[in-house]
Design brief:
A two-stranded antiparallel ribbon has the order 1-2. The N terminus and C terminus are likely disordered. The chain has eleven helices and two strands; from the N terminus they run H-H-H-H-H-H-E-E-H-H-H-H-H. It is mainly α. It has one domain: Up-down Bundle (Rhopdopsin 7-helix transmembrane proteins).
Length: about 325
């Protein structure tokens, strides 16, 4: 009853001037910075991928290069998909100021949620390809166990399924409407909330499984050629996978415990956008050569370059994409 009263109170007062609204200003500034950042990194990744031959046709005949290409391509796709989140956010931030029609808020938020779901899903697909390519390296033969292969595929299924379920739970019902302060959430009943809790629980289970896959090899002694390099890549990948998971959990906790349900979408969308950008940054930093990647857009185009390690099976199998 309190939620309904607060909700009605928000909708009967006169609309505020959004240009004097702190939530609007913060959301707009972060959104613009995020769009510029994503544009730069996307262009750099594509340029670097072209110059280093990540998508050469002959790579399809080399399993190690296929693995490296899958890792790199999933990173590029994750950045490109984030546009489906960030651009509709601009609409969400600037509509719903007591215009008498809640439909624009619902549509813009639904599109934004779909973009967020696709981006986060692709980020975890990237992490999955990352650990899978590491497990296929010859130095990791000790981890080539049947039950680990089942866990590997189950992790992908659980995370992707959980993300899709979560996206559907947020978009299927009529969740958003207008107010004097912009778009806000409608009061939720238990039939609306429980699918969100269940889907988030499934995602958390998948995240735990993903971290297990990254950290399990660190418990054993990696042997053979390039063992030190494999360990270094494993540790680096594990750290950034953990950053993604912790960031997701913190965003969930903030919105579930700290932020009131009646808060405008400026705040809640920005919290999730910060989380998404932390995830995307972790994807970029997981490449050892990320400084060269982000500078590649500034370099003159020339002949396709090879990686520092050439097209060795080590570089491809680890998905390290050294350039």
């Amino acid at each position: 009853m309190d939620n309904v009263s607060e909700f009605l109170e928000v909708n009967v007062t006169s609309p505020v001037n959004r240009f004097k609204q702190p939530e609007w200003l913060i959301a707009e500034v972060f959104n613009v910075v995020a769009i510029v950042t994503v544009t730069w990194v996307s262009a750099s990744l594509i340029t670097n991928g072209h110059r280093t031959g990540k998508w050469r046709k002959e790579n399809v005949y080399n399993a190690s290069q296929v693995n490296a290409g899958a890792v790199y391509t999933s990173a590029v796709v994750a950045f490109l998909l984030s546009y489906i989140r960030l651009l509709p956010d601009q609409v969400t931030f600037n509509i719903g100021y007591y215009d008498g029609n809640s439909r624009p808020c619902e549509i813009s938020m639904d599109v934004s949620i779909v973009g967020y779901t696709l981006t986060i899903t692709c980020i975890y697909v990237f992490l999955w390809f990352r650990q899978r390519s590491l497990y296929q390296h010859p130095a990791m033969n000790f981890a080539n166990r049947p039950w680990l292969r089942y866990v590997n595929w189950a992790t992908l299924f659980v995370i992707v399924g959980g993300c899709i379920f979560s996206g559907a739970a947020f978009t299927y019902p009529e969740n958003y409407t207008h107010s004097n302060r912009g778009c806000v959430s409608r009061p939720k009943d238990k039939f609306t909330v429980w699918p969100i809790y269940v889907s988030n629980g499934v995602i958390i289970v998948g995240q735990a499984m993903m971290l297990f896959l990254f950290m399990f090899p660190l418990r054993s002694q990696v042997q053979g050629n390039n063992a030190c390099r494999i360990i270094r890549i494993l540790k680096r990948s594990s750290i950034f996978a953990a950053v993604c998971v912790v960031s997701d959990l913190v965003a969930m906790a903030i919105l579930a415990v700290v932020v009131p349900e009646s808060t405008t979408r400026h705040v809640t969308v920005t919290v999730y956008d910060v989380n998404m950008m932390i995830n995307l940054t972790s994807v970029l930093l997981s490449f050892e050569t990320w400084p060269e990647i982000i500078r590649s857009f500034l370099k003159r185009s020339g002949k396709a370059e090879t990686s520092r390690d050439g097209h060795s099976s080590t570089s491809g199998a680890t998905g390290d994409t050294r350039v």
